[in-house]
Write a structure and sequence with these properties.
The protein has 223 residues and is an alpha/beta fold. The chain has two domains: 3-144, Rossmann fold (3-Layer(aba) Sandwich), CATH 3.40.50.1390; 180-222. It has helices at residues 17-26, 45-53, 65-68, 72-84, 99-109, 118-164, 180-194, 199-206, 210-222; strands at residues 3-9, 31-36, 59-62, 88-91. A four-stranded parallel sheet has the order 2-1-3-4, sandwiched between helices.
Length: 223
């Protein structure tokens, strides 16, 4: 029985440490699986590996339901499939849809039959409670998907409002972004150029990506 912690961020600009910290706080021995993914579908490489790897009685911990999937239909389908395989799912921010909670709800819905006509009523109640539990799970995924859509819409509207108000969005074309790191790296490049080192040697010594190196070299010529 292995406990996995799955953490995901949508862009390289986000920090994944908060999710990992939250998972390890509750499950210190969890094996962390992490990745950066920008889409909304469950075709993420690390997730797919984990999805295949997990076995009955294994546990997968998520910081929130949105980390499992931001698409309601696919998230609910994956939840059902893993549940049927006997995999425990834990959502730190939405504990009401943990598989253990779902199992308890189903167990409680199994009302004791009486051997009379009342059993028909009890059967209907049982089916209703099961449907209600499933609906809560699906609703959590739907709410997660809506939150992502709302955030994207607010961001889009904010950018458009700023543009209409005459504000510059992003770095103006032709302008160069100066940082302490870029200044330091350019100084290194200048020193190595004075020593007549080749471009490949300087790239190795500075640890810069090839494109970044040539970009800095061009900017030095313009300064």
């Amino acid at each position: 029985m292995t406990v996995y912690g799955y953490a995901r961020i949508s862009t390289n600009k986000q920090s994944i440490e908060r999710q990992i910290r939250n998972i390890l706080t509750e499950f210190p021995t969890a094996v962390i699986v992490q990745e950066t993914y920008t889409g909304t579908k469950i075709n993420r490489q690390e997730w797919e590996k984990l999805y295949i790897t997990v076995k009955t009685n294994d546990t997968v911990v998520f910081d929130s339901v949105s980390r499992m999937s931001r698409n309601a239909d696919e998230g609910f389908t994956a939840y059902q499939e893993l549940y049927n395989r006997g995999v425990n799912l834990v959502f730190l921010k939405e504990p009401h849809i943990n598989t253990e909670t779902f199992k308890t709800a189903l167990a409680n819905s199994q009302l004791t039959k009486t051997g009379t006509a009342v059993d028909y009523i009890l059967e209907g109640v049982t089916k209703y409670l099961m449907a209600l539990a499933k609906e809560q799970i699906k609703l959590a995924f739907e709410q997660s998907e809506k939150e992502v859509q709302d955030l994207q819409q607010r961001t889009k509207e904010g950018i458009e409002t700023a543009r209409l108000n005459g504000k510059q969005i992003g770095q103006p074309k032709g302008n160069k972004l100066t940082t302490k790191k870029s200044i330091a790296k350019k100084q290194e490049i200048q020193e190595y150029l004075k020593r007549n080192l080749s471009d490949s040697e300087i790239i190795t010594l500075t640890g810069l990506a090839r494109n970044t190196y040539y970009k800095y070299k061009r900017e030095l010529k313009q300064e």
